[in-house]
Structure formats: C-alpha cells, structure tokens
Design brief:
This protein has about 230 residues and is α+β, with helices and mostly antiparallel strands. The chain has helices at about 25-40, 75-95, 100-105, 105-115, 125-175; strands spanning about 5-10, 15-20, 45-50, 55-60, 65-70, 115-120, 120. It contains five helices and seven strands. Strands 2-1-5-4-3 form a five-stranded antiparallel β-sheet, with helices on both faces. It starts with a strand and ends in a 58-residue tail after the last helix.
C-alpha cells in the first residue's frame, strides 16, 4: 500500500493536503481537481479509480476527506487508514467538522497525519498513540518556546539595566554643570600669580628682597670697603 496524499476538500477547493511521497504541487492540484469532478454526492461508494490512482474518500458534513493511493494498494487497508484519518480530523476539530474548524486546526491535523503514514506506508498506530506522539511534540515545542522567551526576557532586562546606568551617568554630569573644574591645580588666583604679589615673596622692585637686600649681600656682609672693613673681620 502506498498513500500518495491525504486531503480535505470541498466541491470547489482544497482546504488542506498532505503529501507522503515526492510530488509536485501541480500534480497534487491536478489529482484533487480530478477528484472534485468525479465525486458524486449521491453515490454510496467510498472509492473512485482512474487509470493511475485510486481515491478513497469519506464525506464529513459538507466536506470530503480523501486519501489518494496507487492502484496496487490493498483497498481494505486503504479504508482502514481513511477511518483513522477521519477520527483524527474529528478529534482535532472536536465540536463540528466544517471549513472554519479545519482551517483553524490545519497544522494539528497535518502533524497527526504524519504519525499515521510515513513515506507513503501506513504505520501501525492507534488514535490514542497518535495523540500521545503529537502531545509529546507539542510539549517539546512549548519547552523550546519557553527557553527562547526566557532568553528574550533576559536580554530585555540587560538592556534596561544598561539604560538606567547611562541615565544615572547623565544625571550626575548634569548636576556637575558649569565650566570644567580646575580643582587640584590651585583654584586661588594668588597661587598662579594672577593677583598682586605680597611684599617679600617674589618682590618685583620692592624695598626689600629679604636675604638679598638692597645694599649688598646682607647689609654689610661683603660691603663697607672690601673684605676686611667689618664684613669678615669686624
């Protein structure tokens, strides 16, 4: 048995289709379009055969659930697979199977179909097992999403913290204000010689130089007529 595709269609369009073997979109659309032309709402049969494929289908409200298989597949196995597909669709849509419900739960239906057929061949699974497998996948996906969200939240907190630090620095700079401070290099005008010098400090023509006084080297140390007049000898 080889299941080529499983789909849910209306009389005029396809709502979803899952391919289990390599097929082009053009071929899938062609096969489903041919089914919509061949199906007769008043017929009691559940399968249609063409020259190349077999359509096994089941009406669901105003929709059709159809499995496309090759002609060499076992019709009984095909019908069994179709019944399991129908249970899955009903379980996913829960209340009523209609176009809105199918589109809303399309991903869940497709994932569940994947648990039933792998590479065109039917897996030995029940509806309960399919639900368990899909719930496990869903749990893993939720866990991954939680981890990713945690990383995003952490990055936001870091960015917020950095923003607060920058804001605090700007506030401190704003409080300082005014021209840059010269503290540490002498803030007093006198210290850099900008004001009047005090007498005796670095005197600029004042009456006294202190230890280098006006008449000599100490008021008679080397004056008074030579080295002996009273400087060195009295």
């Amino acid at each position: 048995m080889v299941v080529l595709s499983a789909a849910i269609v209306t009389q005029s369009k396809a709502l979803l289709a899952r391919q289990f073997v390599e097929m082009t979109r053009l071929r899938v659309e062609g096969l489903l379009g041919a089914f919509q032309k061949l199906v007769d709402a008043g017929r009691d049969h559940t399968f249609i055969e063409t020259e190349t494929v077999r359509y096994v289908y089941q009406p669901m409200e105003s929709l059709y659930l159809v499995a496309v298989t090759n002609k060499s597949s076992n019709i009984m196995e095909d019908l069994e697979t179709l019944r399991l597909f129908a249970k899955i669709v009903q379980d996913c849509c829960q209340i009523q199977v209609n176009e809105e419900a199918v589109l809303k739960n399309a991903l869940d239906i497709v994932f569940a179909f994947d648990e039933v057929v792998s590479h065109g061949h039917r897996e030995s699974v029940t509806l309960a097992q399919v639900k368990t497998y899909t719930e496990m996948d869903s749990h893993e996906e939720k866990l991954h999403q939680m981890i990713e969200q945690s990383k995003i939240n952490e990055a936001r907190e870091m960015a917020k913290k950095k923003q607060m630090e920058l804001k605090k620095i700007r506030q401190q700079e704003a409080k300082a204000g005014g021209p840059p401070s010269m503290t540490g290099f002498g803030s007093s005008p006198d210290s850099l010689g900008g004001g009047p010098a005090s007498p005796g400090s670095m005197g600029g023509g004042g009456p006294s130089m202190g230890g280098m006084g006006g008449g000599g080297m100490g008021g008679g140390a080397m004056s008074g007529g030579g080295m002996g007049g009273g400087g060195m000898g009295g």
